[in-house]
Amino acid sequence: MILYRMVFGSMGANSLIRRPMFISNPRYMYLGSRVQIRDGARLEAVLHTAHRTPHLSIGNNVNIEQNVHIVCQGRIEIGSDVSITGNCAIIDTTHPYYDVMDPLKIGARILDEDTFVEIGDGTFLGFASLIMPNVRIGKRCVIGAHSVVTSDVPDYSVAIGSPARVIRRYDPSVGAWVTVN
Predict the structure, then answer these.
(1) Burial code of 52-82, b = ≥16 C-beta within 10 A, e = fewer?
(2) 57 FRET partner, CA 20 to 30 A, in 29, 119, 121, 166?
(3) pLDDT tens readout for residues 124-156
(4) Tally of structural domains, the chain
């Protein structure tokens, strides 16, 4: 753990990273306290241009389960008290495919643009969900298993599907979850 504290941008107290895992450019990653990252995780801060610096921040009391991939070229902010279940992916990169004559394989191409992902405090990402670039997920949201989130999800919402759509929202005026049509 001492080695991790020396290579990350910062790492809070009582955080734990289990091996095996892949971590690329950890100096651009900032972990809060009590962050638990399980085996098989892949955390990447992508450096592909001199003018773009990635920034991956993870709040306090976050659990990241097995085989989660987080790929950051711009900015990914994960709030506190977030649960990220197994096999999820959070990415803020795009691989352009438009130039069919480009000799570089598509997987090695990264679109040079400002990107972000924001995940609010207390959110739960269901098994194998995928969070795409330029998406904001609000506070206390639930993202269903195998969902693909391609657009913003407001605070206190349940979203499911591919692409994910909001099916329930908490309505504080009635103190209950209501179905969204």
Answers:
(1) eebbbbbbbbbebbebbbbbbbbbbbbbbbb
(2) 166
(3) 999 999 999 999 999 999 999 999 999 999 999
(4) 1
Q: What is the mean pLDDT of residues 93-104?
A: 91
- Parent domain of 51: 2-179
Q: Which helix (H) or strand (E) holds 69?
A: strand 69-72
CATH of the domain at 53: 2.160.10.10
Residue owning tokens 């992508």: 46
Whether 117 contacts 70, CB under 8 Å: no
| Dist CA 20 CA 108 (whole Å) | 24
